[in-house]
Design brief:
Chain lengths: 155, 499
C-alpha cells in the first residue's frame, strides 16, 4: 500500500478529530439545555474522525482501480520546502534584525523554489521587491517597522 | 419614488465621495490586473489585502475589496479572448468562442460584447441587491437561533455536495474549518479552547493569517511546481464596436445570461464558474445552429460573461443580509466585515445604511469604471502578461509575510502562516475543498452560538429545530442533500469494489 494524499487527509481528519474529542471531554459537555464549551468540539471531533475513517476505507477500495494522487509530486518538493523555509526564516529574523534584512532572506530563500530562476536576476529582484514592500508598508501605510535592528536584546 | 431608489441614490452619494471613488478605482484596477494575470486570483489578492484593511474605514475597505472581486471577473475575460488563457476559472468558458472570434479578426467586437454585457448584468445585479434588501431583511428578522443554526447546517451540506473531490472530503474540510474556528475564548463560558497554553491564540486563529496561508502559500507552491511559461500570443484587437448582426445576436443572450447568473449567484456553492458554464450550455442547447458554438458564436461570449457578472453581484445578497456566504470569496468578505467589528445580517442595513448602500452604489460606479478602463486600455493589460511568474510569486510571498506580521507584530503569526500553508497544500493535493474549509471557519462560531442558544431556549429539547417551519425547511433540505450525497457515494464505492 502506497501512502498517498487521501491517506494523509484521512489521518489528518482522525488526528484533529481525536484531539478535539480529547480536549472537549476536558472542557465539559454540559447538558443539552446548557451546553458546555466542550460540546461542539466533542460532537464535531467525533464526526470528523468518522469522516477520516471513511476516507481511509474509500482510499483502500479505490486502490485497486484508480491511480492514486501522490501526496507530493517530485516537482513540488523543492517549492514546498523552499517556500516554507523562506517564511520560517522571515519569522525568525523579523524580531531580531528588522524588516529589510528579513525581506532579503525571504526573497533569497524563496527564489530557490523555482529551479528555472536565473541567478543574474536575483540581485534585481531583491532590490525591487524589498523597495516596493518597504514603500507600501513603511512609507505608504506608515506601519512602524524597524527597517534595520541590530539590537538583538530586544525581545 | 420607491424606497429602494432613494436608498440607491443615498448609496451613490456615499460612493461618490473622493475617498470612496479612490478606493473603488484602486479596487477595480487591481482586480482587472489580477484577473489578467494567470496564477493570482481574487481569493489570493483579497486574502493578501485583509491585513491592510484593519486601518481603513469600513466602507472604504469593503468598496476596495468588492472592486477587486468583480474587477477580476472582468479582467479574466480579456486574456481569455485575446490569448485563450483564462485568468480565472469563471472565464474558461469565454475562451471557447471568444478566442475563436479573435482569430477571425473580431477580437475588438468580442471584448466590447463582453464588457457591455458585463456592465448590463452588473447593473441588473446591483438593482436586484437593492430591491431584495428590504424583503430579505424582513425575512431574516424572523430568524431566531434555531433558524440560523439550521441554515448554516444546510448551507455547509449543500456546498459540500457539489465540492470538488467528493462529499466526504468536502464536508470533512468544512468540519475541520469549524473546529479551527472554535479556537480561542468560548463566548458563553470564557474557557480558552484549543489554545495549548499559547496566549496569542486566546483571541482565536486570525482570519487573515489563515486565509493567506490556506490560499496564497499553497497556491504558490503548486503553481511553481506545475507552471510552464505561458505562451504569449499577441492578437490584433481590431475594431472595437460590434456590427449590427453581432448586436442582434448578443442582446437576447445577455438577457438570458443575466437572469441565470442572478439566480445561481444567490445559491450557496454555485459560484461564478458554474454560472458562466450553465449559461453557455443553455445558449448552445436553444440555438438553432449549435454547430456555430466553439467556432466564434457571439452568444457564447455574451451569455457567460453576463452570467458571471450577474452572479458576482447577487452573491452579496445572502452574504450581507443573512451573514451566510455562498463562496470562499464571500467568506473572505464576511471576514473583512468582522475585522471591522460589523456583524453582517439583517440588522446591518438598518444599523449601517451608509456602509450597505455605499457598497451597493460603488458596485455600479465600479462597473462603469471597468467599461472605461477595459476597452481603451486593453493593450496595457496584455503587457502585464509578460511579467514572469518567478518574479510575481516572490513579490506575493514578501507582501504576504509583511502583511501578516503587521497584524500583531508577532512572529507567531508567521509560524501560523507556515502551518496553514502546509495544511492548505495537503488539502489541495488531496483534492479537498479549501472553499469548504474557509466557509466552515467563518460559519463555525455562528453555528455554535446559535445551536447552543436554540437548545437552551427550548430547555434542551432538540425538537425546536423541527417545530419551527423555516428551521424545518432547512433541516429537511440539508438531510435530503446529505442522503443523496451519501447514497451516490455508497453506490460508487460498491461499483469500484466490484470493478
Amino acid at each position: 500500500m502506497n501512502f498517498h494524499a487521501d491517506h494523509a487527509v484521512g489521518i489528518l481528519f482522525i488526528a484533529v478529530g481525536g484531539i478535539a474529542v480529547y480536549l472537549g471531554v476536558g472542557y465539559g459537555f454540559g447538558s443539552l439545555a446548557e451546553m458546555g464549551p466542550g460540546a461542539l468540539p466533542l460532537l464535531l471531533g467525533a464526526t470528523l474522525s468518522a469522516f477520516g475513517v471513511a476516507l481511509l476505507l474509500q482510499a483502500r477500495l479505490a486502490e485497486a482501480g484508480r491511480a492514486a494522487i501522490a501526496l507530493m509530486p517530485r516537482e513540488e518538493i523543492r517549492p514546498f520546502l523552499a517556500i516554507l523555509a523562506a517564511l520560517l526564516a522571515f519569522g525568525l529574523l523579523i524580531d531580531r534584525v528588522g524588516l529589510i534584512p528579513s525581506l532579503i532572506a525571504l526573497v533569497a530563500i524563496g527564489w530557490l523554489a523555482d529551479s528555472r530562476g536565473r541567478l543574474k536576476e536575483l540581485p534585481f529582484l531583491l532590490l525591487v521587491i524589498t523597495a516596493i514592500v518597504v514603500a507600501i508598508f513603511y512609507f505608504g501605510l506608515g506601519i512602524p517597522f524597524h527597517l534595520f535592528d541590530w539590537s538583538i536584546a530586544r525581545a | 419614488m420607491p424606497e429602494f431608489l432613494s436608498s440607491i441614490l443615498m448609496g451613490l452619494q456615499v460612493a461618490a465621495s473622493i475617498d470612496n471613488l479612490f478606493y473603488c478605482l484602486l479596487g477595480v484596477t487591481l482586480g482587472t490586473a489580477i484577473g489578467v494575470l494567470p496564477g493570482v486570483g481574487p481569493i489570493i489578492t483579497i486574502s493578501l489585502l485583509l491585513p491592510l484593511t484593519f486601518g481603513l474605514p469600513p466602507t472604504g475597505s469593503l468598496i476596495l475589496l468588492a472592486g477587486i472581486y468583480y474587477g477580476a471577473a472582468y479582467g479574466g475575460s480579456t486574456t481569455s479572448i485575446l490569448l485563450n488563457l483564462p485568468g480565472e476559472a469563471s472565464s474558461a468558458v469565454t475562451c471557447l468562442d471568444g478566442h475563436q472570434m479573435a482569430r477571425r479578426g473580431r477580437a475588438g467586437s468580442a471584448l466590447a460584447i463582453a464588457a457591455l454585457g458585463s456592465f448590463f448584468a452588473g447593473t441588473v445585479g446591483t438593482i436586484l441587491i437593492a430591491a431584495a434588501a428590504p424583503a430579505m431583511a424582513s425575512i431574516a428578522a424572523r430568524f431566531g437561533s434555531a433558524e440560523y443554526a439550521a441554515l448554516v447546517f444546510c448551507a455547509l451540506v449543500a456546498t459540500a455536495s457539489i465540492a470538488k473531490g467528493g462529499f466526504i472530503k468536502g464536508i470533512g474540510s468544512g468540519v475541520l474549518g469549524v473546529l479551527m474556528g472554535l479556537a480561542g475564548a468560548d463566548v458563553a463560558s470564557g474557557v480558552f479552547r484549543f489554545t495549548f497554553g499559547i496566549s496569542e491564540l486566546r483571541d482565536g486563529i486570525d482570519f487573515a493569517v489563515l486565509a493567506v496561508g490556506l490560499f496564497a502559500v499553497s497556491e504558490i507552491i503548486t503553481t511553481i511546481g506545475s507552471s510552464g511559461k505561458p505562451e504569449v500570443v499577441t492578437t490584433k484587437v481590431g475594431r472595437l464596436w460590434p456590427n449590427a448582426e453581432e448586436f442582434r445576436l448578443a442582446w437576447p443572450a445577455v438577457l438570458r445570461g443575466t437572469a441565470l447568473g442572478s439566480f445561481l449567484g444567490i445559491l450557496p456553492g454555485a459560484g461564478l464558474a458554474m454560472s458562466s458554464f450553465s449559461a453557455y450550455m443553455v445558449e448552445k442547447s436553444i440555438s438553432r445552429q449549435p454547430e456555430r458554438f466553439g467556432a466564434g458564436a457571439v452568444e457564447g461570449v455574451a451569455a457567460p460573461e453576463a452570467a458571471n457578472n450577474a452572479a458576482s453581484q447577487t452573491a452579496f445578497i445572502p452574504t450581507l443580509m443573512l451573514g451566510v456566504p455562498g463562496s470562499p470569496v464571500m467568506a473572505l468578505f464576511l471576514g473583512a466585515l468582522m475585522i471591522q467589528g460589523i456583524n453582517p445580517g439583517p440588522s446591518m442595513i438598518t444599523n449601517n445604511p451608509d456602509l450597505f448602500w455605499g457598497l451597493v452604489g460603488s458596485m455600479w460606479i465600479g462597473n462603469l469604471m471597468l467599461v472605461i478602463l477595459n476597452l481603451p486600455l486593453i493593450g496595457l493589460w496584455v503587457k502585464l502578461l509578460t511579467v514572469p511568474y518567478q518574479w510575481l510569486y516572490l513579490f506575493v510571498l514578501a507582501f504576504a509575510s509583511v502583511g501578516v506580521y503587521s497584524i500583531g507584530f508577532s512572529s507567531l503569526q508567521i509560524l501560523t502562516l507556515v502551518i496553514f500553508g502546509a495544511i492548505g497544500y495537503v488539502l489541495k493535493r488531496a483534492d479537498c475543498s479549501l472553499a469548504m474549509f474557509i466557509l466552515g471557519f467563518v460559519l463555525g462560531p455562528m453555528f455554535e452560538e446559535n445551536f447552543r442558544r436554540a437548545l437552551s431556549l427550548s430547555r434542551g429539547d432538540p425538537m425546536t429545530f423541527i417545530n419551527r417551519p423555516i428551521s424545518l425547511t432547512f433541516v429537511v433540505l440539508g438531510i435530503v442533500i446529505l442522503l443523496a450525497a451519501t447514497t451516490s457515494l455508497v453506490k460508487r464505492g460498491a461499483q469500484e469494489a466490484t470493478d
